[in-house]
Amino acid sequence: MPKIHPETKALIIKRLETRSTAEVADTFNVSQRQVQRLRKRFEETGDVFDKPRSGRPCKTTARQDRLLVRKSKASPFSTAAELYQAWSPQVPVSTRIVCRILSQNGLHGRISAQKPAINKRQLKKRVAFAKAHSLLKGWTLEKWQKVDFSDESSIELHHSRRKYCKRPTGARMDPRFNQKTVKFGGGKIMVWGYIQYGGVRNICRVEGNINSLKYQEVLATSYIPNHKRGQILQQDGAPSHTSLSTSKFLKAKKIKVLQDWPAQSPDMNIIEHVWGRMKEEAWKTKPKNLDELWEACKTAFFAIPDDFINKLYESLSNRMDAVLQAHGSHTRY
Known about the structure:
Number of domains: 3
Strand content: 5-15%
CATH topology of the largest domain: Nucleotidyltransferase, domain 5
Oligomer: single chain
CATH architecture of the largest domain: 2-Layer Sandwich
CATH class of the largest domain: Alpha Beta
Largest sheet: 5 strands, mixed
Number of helices: 15
Shape: elongated
């Protein structure tokens, strides 16, 4: 028996004042029995709307639900099926109910963030660096502006990150909705670059692995010609950056380096955001080979607005505070 819309119920009651039950049923294409029930309910209660229902009773008890929540908190990466096996309620339920119970208790399924592993020694170094370079220690925006942030980055020709698509049911294997993958990403290129407050920047392609001699060549051709007196070079603790020969090279060239940069700290190096934006724009051009990928990366790198880089510099004080608040652990940056 089809359900009658509330507005239609009100019209039926009004029409019953002048029409018979059969006539009203024909007019609104409902059964006479439904019209009679509406009239009886209206005469008894003065209302024709449905009352709130309790719904289907829960299969599990509140105690069982709390047990499931505890198990999920103890093992946040477990699937619904794995949690059900460990939970073992007296009444069998589906994994969908497991997900619903967890969702009602604030535990929603989400894609976990990928962050580098940090040990205790690295946590202490991150805290020490953030304290030494906080706003309280005089590291204002004006002082950060003297730091040139640099890093290497590798870019695959065909990235394999997850993509969402809208497709009809049962069409998962339709080629139109498949994300094509290539072994080893179809090849990749290595680049080195640096950024400076105000928009000054440079990028170069590096062939092969970067050792100390190759890193010094990169600095000699892509950084030193634009280096200004008083600027400080930020670099991570890679062996090619901290080797004895590189240290002597930088000293000979009178380039000051930002000391004690902590390992596993991409959230503190603002050039990482530049790499991310550059890759997104380069992949949009759909390069067919590594040379086209390099040209796309170079174009995208220099097309990034100066204001975008300046805002990254302005966030450095907040980044140091975030590291301190997280006691050296991961931050949202």
